[in-house]
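Fold it.
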Amino acid sequence: SAADAEAKQTAIKKKKSEAAAEEASSAESSEGLPSNTAAYKARLITQKKELYKDPPALPPSHILIEETWVKSPKRDNRTGELTFPPGQNEETNKLLKEFRPNRTPEEILR
C-alpha cells in the first residue's frame, strides 16, 4: 500500500542520514564551527537536534565579540524606537543605524 511504501522511503532516508552523520562525525571533531553542511548535519543528528532545513544552513563563519560592553539601547520618547549606541565594529555600526525596533525582546515575549 501507499503507507507501507512511504514508511519504507522514510526508513531508507533515516538510515542514509544516520550513516552520513556517523561518517562525518568520525571525520570531524565536534569542537568549533563545522566546515561544511554535511558535518553540520551530522553534528545536529548526533546531538539529537531537530532539523528545520535539509541540508541545514551553516552558522555564521565568524562572530565578533566586543571587548567592552556598550550602553543599553535608548528609547526615543517621540517615536518609541530603540536606538543602539555604536560599538567598535564599523560593519555592525552601519547595520545599527538602520535597525530601529519599537519593541524589546521582553515586550514581544509578554
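The chain has four helices and two strands.
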